[in-house]
From TrEMBL:
Species assigned in the record: Pieris brassicae
Protein name per UniProt: TNase-like domain-containing protein
InterPro entries in the record: C3orf33-like, SNase_OB-fold_sf
Gene Ontology annotations for the cellular component aspect, listed alphabetically: extracellular space
Length: 270
């Protein structure tokens, strides 16, 4: 090691030994600043009841916000979500109103949408993916999480997509959607849902479009029945194959173990 390097390390060691309080203060200051930055970014105790309170970086990064569906606001129709902060503070959070959410690319045109939401989504968990703010309104997608008790799984539905598919809403996409953005991926999905509703004459389209030709209706019913029969037949065939395999396994097991079974010795009478 050269004399210059030795002197440099010696000076650094001497400085740390002499001014250790200053070093500790600097380290604690950096740690505190990092913690404050992380809290500002994550907002672990912030419950949002207004779109204006949501940080800009949440919207730009489409940060998921979790909560519970509580109802619908009328005139205009907005989905009301009780946002759940990562860290729950009972008295403070319970006093805040739910967050109104405007569904992106969706125009609700039927009162059946409200009835459907109240029946299906009331009290269920939802996830918001903010897209933008429009006149102090949060514009977002709303994913509904429905528990499936039979399979012990969870079904996730996009509320806007489902309402359009049922014919309770229309797809109204804004102009100037950027390529490779979240909106460019959602737009085609909503348009396909509307095409499905039109082809099936669901909801509002049953009155706005001419009725489906009878041969098309019969063909659709026949294809649906055929699919159901195929599914049922496949299940029955699978059950039969499983039964045959089990019976074969039991038979082979009995035959293979038969030579190893000892025959009972005859009892001699005296």
């Amino acid at each position: 090691m050269s004399e210059m390097e030795g002197g440099l390390f010696f000076n650094m060691e001497s400085l740390l030994n002499k001014d250790y309080r200053g070093v500790n203060i600097a380290v604690y200051s950096l740690a505190t600043a990092g913690l404050a930055l992380a809290i500002h970014k994550v907002r672990p105790v912030s419950k949002f009841s207004k779109a204006s309170k949501i940080p800009d970086h949440f919207i730009k990064q489409h940060e998921p916000l979790r909560g519970v569906y509580v109802g619908v606001q009328h005139s205009p129709v907005r989905v009301l979500v009780n946002h759940k902060a990562p860290i729950y503070i009972p008295l403070w959070h319970s006093s805040k109103a739910p967050l109104p959410v405007k569904l992106w690319g969706v125009d609700i045109v039927s009162t059946n949408a409200v009835n459907w939401l109240d029946c299906v989504a009331k009290g269920q968990k939802v996830t918001l993916k903010p897209i933008t703010c429009d006149k102090d309104e949060l514009v977002s997608t709303v994913l509904l999480h429905l528990p499936q008790p039979k399979t012990k799984s969870e079904e996730t539905l996009d509320i806007g997509q489902k309402l359009i598919e049922l014919g309770f809403a229309k797809a109204v996409l804004p102009q100037g959607i950027k390529k490779n953005s979240m909106e460019s991926k959602l737009g085609p999905v909503l348009l396909n849902a509307e095409n499905t509703a039109k082809s099936r004459r669901n909801g509002i389209w049953s009155d706005k479009l001419p009725p489906i030709p009878s041969y098309v209706a019969y063909w659709r019913k026949g294809s649906t029945l055929s699919k159901e029969l195929i599914v049922l037949s496949s299940r029955k065939i699978l059950e039969i194959l499983i039964f045959i395999l089990k019976a074969t396994f039991v038979g082979v097991k009995k035959i293979s173990l038969k030579p190893f079974k000892s025959n009972p010795k005859p009892v001699q009478a005296t």
